Amino acid sequence: MLTLIRKTSSLIEETKDNLKEQSEELKETFDKIDEAVEKIDIFVHTINSSVDEFKSMQSTISNIVVKADKTATNVLTSINNFSELIDNSYHKIEKPVTETVDLIGNIGTYIQKIKAFLPSNKKEKDRNLN
Questions:
Q1: 40-74, pLDDT tens digit by residue?
Q2: pLDDT tens-digit map of 10-28
């Protein structure tokens, strides 16, 4: 019986040592898990920050697009208004310019007709004067 008690005691001691070893290994495992959880938390925080920055950039880009659209609309409106102004101005000056060109052409014709009646050289002028 003493042998049995010794064996049992030895087994208990061995089991105790094994449990102590396993406990240390388990503690190391939990420490590694805690370390991994910390790294995951940092990673998640980084991703959340990146998402917030992305949302901010998206909002900024959206505002820029809206402003660019308004600017483009204003530019197109200005171009259309300027085109209408040029068109209206052209129509307002087209008739007077045409009339002026016709008048100048008529004056040229009258000058040619007047020149036709004038002597063509100095001798002829002198003869007409005498």
A1: 999 999 999 999 999 999 999 999 999 999 999 99
A2: 999 999 999 999 999 999 9
The Cα 90–Cα 16 span in angstroms is 108
Q: Which tokens belong to 103? A: 């008048």
CA–CA distance, 29 with 7 (Å, rounded to integer):
32
For residues 117 and 124, give the distance between their C-alpha atoms in angstroms, rounded to a whole number: 12
The tokens describing 84, both together, are 């209408």
Tokens linked to 98: 């045409």
Domain positions in the chain: 23-114
125: which residues sit within 8 A by CB, 6+ positions away?
Answer: 119
Stretch (H or E) spanning 130: none
Report the distance separating Cα 35 and Cα 93, nearest Å. 85
pTM score of the predicted model: 0.48
How does DSSP assign 37-50, residue by residue?
A: HHHHHHHHHHHHHH
